[in-house]
Write a structure and sequence with these properties.
single chain, alpha/beta, Rossmann fold
């Protein structure tokens, strides 16, 4: 496609790693315009039974990682008075499910933090928004729902109303991200786009 890409091994929950990621991107590409905070994991267990380590790791990757990567990228965006930050949250921030308490808490925290950040950086031409997917057929999700029958049960059970009934494709989530980074979305900040097939309607 004529694009440049690079890989930087990063633990987003470590400040030095997040700073290195931003610095490496800026040095190689000359600037930072867009940050998509999408790193994540999932620990499934009732909160009563979840280990402290698993809870801390989930919060660290999702919530702290979003904080650190945003903090690292914003100075570069401010230099050009333009930037777009898109934080990937989840339907679980609004409609929690049993067994994903830490995940839901982390995503809810990102939602609240994104709204504050949107207000704090608006004067620099930086917009901050969220995309909240329902269940999408990522590699991680396919592990939990490996067969078409499993995926159909999840889509039906979660309340998908679009036709055909199915789980979201990753490309559909990506399209929402691209929109929030494009010119037509310039007047949108502090908002959330839900891509969930109708399983949650705010």
């Amino acid at each position: 496609m004529g694009r440049r890409a690079m890989f930087v091994r990063t633990d987003v929950s470590v400040k030095a790693d997040a700073q290195k990621l931003a610095r490496t991107a800026a040095d190689a590409l000359g600037r930072i315009d867009i940050l998509v905070n999408i790193a994540g994991n999932s620990q499934v267990a009732p909160l009563e039974e979840m280990s402290e380590a698993d809870f801390d790791r989930t919060i660290a990757i999702h919530l702290k990682g979003t904080f650190l990567c945003s903090q690292a990228a914003i100075p570069y965006m401010k230099r050009n008075n333009w930037g777009r930050i898109v934080n990937i949250i989840s339907r679980a921030a609004f409609k929690p499910r049993v067994g994903v308490g830490a995940y839901s808490a982390a995503k809810g925290g990102i939602l609240a933090m994104s709204r504050v950040l949107a207000a704090e950086v608006a004067q620099y031409g930086i917009n901050v928004n969220c995309v909240a997917p329902g269940t999408a057929l990522t590699r991680m999700v396919r592990t939990g729902f490996p067969t078409p029958e499993d995926q159909m049960r999840e889509a039906t059970g979660s309340g998908v109303i679009t036709r055909p009934v199915r789980l979201a494709h990753p490309e559909e989530i990506a399209a929402a991200i691209v929109f929030l980074c494009s010119t037509p979305s310039a007047h949108i900040t502090g908002s959330t786009i839900h891509v969930n097939g109708g399983t949650f309607m705010p």
